[in-house]
Amino acid sequence: MPALNEGQTIYKVLKSVPKTIKGFSSLELLVINDGSIDNTEEESLKSGATVINHNYNKGVGNAFQTALNYSLKVNTDILVSIDSDGQFDVNQIEEMISPIIKNEADFCIGNRFSNSKPEKMPKIKYWGNRQISRIVSFVGNSKIQDASCGFRSYSRDCLLNLNLQGSFTYTHETILDLVDKGYRVAQVPVNVKYFDDRVSRVADNLFKYAVNTSLIIFKCLKDYKPLQFFLSIALFVLLISFFMGGFVLIHWFKYGTITPYKSLGIIALSFCGMSLLLTILAFVADMLNRIRNNQEKMLYLIKKDYFERD
Fold it and tell me: Based on the structure, what is the number of domains in the chain?
């Protein structure tokens, strides 16, 4: 559980988590205290949870990476992430890990929208979540119903292969990273409660949230599909060049001169050159992406050897 100033709710949530889960010899509660200034740490320790403290608020993305590294160190088989405010039903944890146990999926994400909009969820937040899910689905070539849900589960192999860059949030990047690496995803319908007086720690400012998540998705598109990304921009610039150049060319055919559109012709030629440079950049970026993929494979083997060493 990533937690920021959740002292009022976290003890109750932690104590309500099932003490045993069929098929597992042990269950550990882990709280990443992300720079809280209230009694979050004390309440978490009182419930018997392991607490890792961040000296200051580093963001949910960094909190998840801290949890990921700790989970690998203690040889975790499955990591479940869930919010610490009581929004989700902890009794659905078994449902969340069931597809992994049955080898039907490698990681699972909760779907809050299986029965349309959840009760009391603000309409603007519902609309925003749906749009982000569409973007993630497009980038990842996989139909994702709820890309922002924080209730998830990951197999150990997924944890070894996750390499994240974003500190603001991790929800979208994990999907894109794991789907790009060929891991199977299951989407589990989950119950969620929205509180009238609850202010999201991540999406308290919808504009800021939209900008930050869009930047993460934009970077993922650039990193995972560089050839399509840069070629699309090159084609767009080339079309502008053709449009402007075509206008100047038609004027020359009709009047025998490009005056007074000489500057427009020069701009069209510049755009054409820019398109060529972007095309070259696309192939260079694609080559670098192949190198990145090989480096990630090597990093996976190094991490596997490091964390599974006797």
Answer: 2
